[in-house]
Amino acid sequence: MIIKNNCKGITVVELIIVVALIIVVLTIAFNALFVSKKSFDIGLDKATLQQNARVIANQVTERLKFAKSISHMPILTGEDYYKISLQDNTTTGFKDMVVEKYNSAGGVVYKEVIDGFINELTFTTYGLESQVVNFVLNVNTGITEFTINSAVKIVNTKANISNSNYIYYCLYD
After folding, report:
1. Closest CA to 81 of 97, 68, 94
2. In this structure, are strands 108-124 and 95-102 parallel, antiparallel, or unpaired?
3. Using one digit for the tens of pLDDT, what is the confidence trace for 39-92?
4. Considering the domain boundaries, does residue 47 fall inside one?
5. Alpha-carbon distance 113 to 109, whole Å?
6. Residues near 158 by Cβ (< 8 Å), separated by ≥ 6?
7. Domain count of the chain?
8. Cα–Cα 20 to 30 A to 47, which of 57, 81, 134, 146?
9. Which residues span the domain enclosing 154?
């Protein structure tokens, strides 16, 4: 008598091996997903920070380029003047850029706050009567930091500013 062993199916050992392999593959796949998500978030944070810094730098450039006069002290010429400075943002813990317009008597007429994760905004000129205002803008979110060193060619006037965190300027009417 011949006995045929026709057992079809899988054993418990084979099932355990397959389940273990699936768990290993899924663990590797999810780890790769989490690492790529974190890399994407960091890249997005850097891109947003750089874009915000460029917007602020462009604002400074556009405001100063055609100024009638520029100084590190209030401009008391009997006309309206502006001030660019920083103010603390209690929500973010960083600073925002503030543009204030003053009337000829020195009272604030208008105040615009430009949100940003700003650590530093410093204005400098090289030489006593320079037609170039240099500024350093440093922004930081706690994860990413970005610095812009820029210069504004002043078209109509000259300035003398030495490492000031604020700047005053007048515009033509």
Report:
1. 68
2. antiparallel
3. 998 888 889 889 989 999 999 999 999 888 888 888 878 889 999 999 998 888
4. yes
5. 14
6. 129, 130, 131
7. 1
8. 134
9. 40-171
